Amino acid sequence: MAHFIDPGRCIDCRICALVCPVEAVFSNYDLPPEWERFERVNVEFFRK
Ligand code: SF4
Measured in Å, how far apart are the chain's first and last C-alpha atoms? Predict the structure, then answer.
């Protein structure tokens, strides 16, 4: 299952990153290089 975060609504409080049990959520500032392409995927999801 995919999860997306609306970049127009997220205030980057990082609570979701802190509570995610599988460490699948990152702030833009902490995004590991191997996951960078998913930032664009997330943005494109909300452009539709
Ligand atoms: S960082 Fe996570 S919990 Fe905070 S506003 Fe953005 S999506 Fe919501």
Answer: 19
Domain ranges, ordered by start, for the chain: 1-48
- The model's pTM is 0.79
> In which band, very low, low, confident or very high, does the pLDDT at 1 lie, cut at 50, 70 and 90?
confident
Do you know the residue count of the chain?
48
- How far apart are the CA of 12 and the centre of ligand 1, in A? 5
* Nearest Cα to Cα of residue 26 among 40, 41, 36: 36
Alpha carbons 21 and 43: distance in angstroms, whole number = 23
Please tell me if the CB atom of residue 5 comes closer than 6 angstroms to any atom of ligand 1. yes
> Tell me, what DSSP letter sits at residue 20?
-
